[in-house]
Amino acid sequence: MNQQQPSTEFSGRNVLITGAASGIGLAIAEHLAARGARVAGVDVAASIEEAVAGLPGEGHLALRRDLTEPGAADEIVEEVRRELGEPHVLVNSAGVAILGPAEELPAADWRRTMDINLDASFFMAQAAGRAMTRAGWGRIVNLASQASVIGLDQHVAYCASKAAIVGMTKAMSLEWAPRGVTVNAVSPTVVETPLGKKAWAGEKGERARAGIPAGRFAQPEEVAAMVAYLASDDAAMVTGSNMLLDGGFTSV
Ligand SMILES: NC(=O)c1ccc[n+]([C@@H]2O[C@H](COP(=O)([O-])OP(=O)(O)OC[C@H]3O[C@@H](n4cnc5c(N)ncnc54)[C@H](O)[C@@H]3O)[C@@H](O)[C@H]2O)c1
Q: What is the CATH number of the domain that holds 176?
């Protein structure tokens, strides 16, 4: 095959990605757009316009929205249907890491973490899942984290939100498998994005890196490649999984 030819693996597919202005969400948007997907990128950051404008290919859609607003998920899915057509793939990548000691974490930090990491992902999956189950084909990929399967210092709200994402993923996967929709989670170790660099700066990060058998943090493109597999036709039998991408960290 001529390596210069653009891949068309995802052509004809509408891919809705939250958190697409930055980090992992942006890397997934670039990866799938380069393979022919039409991307609807959602983010609260104003830079979503520029991020989507810079994607390879044409016909993408930028939606500047705060996912914690009531009704946002239904409105977003409706707008995607109107502008692009039925959503075939949903990637829930928007998330926050608000850290603090368990005995002191303010209620507002706990609630904000759950609002964005868990509730927004649920409402997006619910709204997109309705359209996908009607159509009889769909792929939902939720960004969890290694924090979904282990405890991490100062990460009480984050760990709880990510473990809950895995529970949600499993429940949706068994309900929707008979209707052609797969639902999976992806759980990376520290990924070198703005969020990852902030949460793992300095000496703490060096210690964490040294504890990873692979000897390094992950790159956003490595996560994008795993998401692309889960979003593909090839992954039809993979559902309800929590795919670790952690260089062996949680196996130690
Ligand atoms: N970076 C890591 O080390 C790491 C590791 C494991 C899992 N994850 C998970 O991967 C996902 C992406 O992380 P990242 O490192 O790319 O983070 P990031 O901070 O680079 O990007 C997250 C994006 O989500 C957007 N966002 C946040 N709140 C929002 C809201 N209310 N409405 C709409 N958009 C909102 C932000 O504006 C940002 O563009 C998160 O769910 C994170 O928990 C990250």
A: 3.40.50.720
pTM as predicted? 0.97
The whole domain housing 236 covers: 14-191+220-240
Q: Which atom of ligand 1 is nearest to the CA of 116?
A: 31
Ligand 1 contact via 121 beta carbon (within 6 Å): no
Does the residue 212 lie in any domain? Answer: no
In a domain, 6, yes or no: no
- Our answer on whether the CB atom of 23 is closer than 6 Å to any ligand 1 atom is yes
Q: Is the CB of 136 under 6 A from ligand 1?
A: no
Alpha carbon distance 57, 37 (integer Å): 8
Nearest to 247 by CA among 220, 219, 212: 212
Residue 96's pLDDT is 97
Note whether 240 and 184 are within 8 A (CB): yes
The list of the chain residues with pLDDT below 70 reads: 1-5
Q: What is the pLDDT of residue 4?
A: 61
Does ligand 1 lie within 6 Å of residue 188's CB atom?
A: yes
User: Catalytic residue numbers?
Assistant: 158
Q: What are the tokens at 70? A: 């009531």
- For residue 5, being part of any structural domain is answered with no
Closest atom of ligand 1 relative to the 147 alpha carbon: 6
Give the number of domains in the chain. Answer: 1
Q: How far is the CA of 31 from the centre of ligand 1 (A)?
A: 17
Q: What is the pLDDT, as a whole number, of residue 1?
A: 47
